[in-house]
């Protein structure tokens, strides 16, 4: 399985809302039920997180990382929780997030297959 999570950093999102998104993702991944779900299959889960604000405004917060155990979850939670907002001055483009294609969308089969 591969999970790609996006955080909105357009100018319509203030600092408090951004922190809510970032901390919410980190806390959700740290939740015991979510941890169990991520590890339940016995096969690694590939996870990436990026910020977007339009067609050309995107930033990878966490590049593709394989989650095999709780220490991997600890690492990705820490990376997400400590990340800093990349963009603040761009208008939202609601049709853009799926068309922006940040570099992390280029999933290579070998990353997920490991």
Quick gist of this model?
This protein is of the alpha+beta class and 114 residues long. Helices cover 36% and strands 22% of the residues.
Q: How would you describe the overall organization of this protein?
A:
The chain has 114 residues and is of the alpha+beta class. Helices cover 36% and strands 22% of the residues. A hairpin with a 5-residue loop joins strand 2 and strand 3. Helix 1 packs antiparallel against helix 3. The mean pLDDT is 78.
Low-confidence runs (pLDDT<50, min 5 residues)? none
Widest β-sheet, arrangement of strands: 1-2-3
The biggest sheet amounts to: 3 strands, mixed
Which radius of gyration do the C-alpha atoms yield? 14 Å
What string gives the helices and strands in order?
Answer: EHHEEHH
Q: Which class of secondary structure composition applies to the elements? A: alpha+beta
Count of DSSP strands: 3
Sheet-strand content, in percent, reads 15-25%
What percent of residues adopt helix (DSSP H or I)? 25-40%
Large-scale geometry: globular
Separation of termini? Answer: 12 Å
User: Averaged pLDDT, please?
Assistant: 78
This entry's quaternary arrangement is single chain
User: Total helix count?
Assistant: 4
Please supply descriptive tags for the structure shown above:
single chain; about 110 residues; alpha+beta; three-stranded mixed sheet; 3 strands; about 20% strand; globular
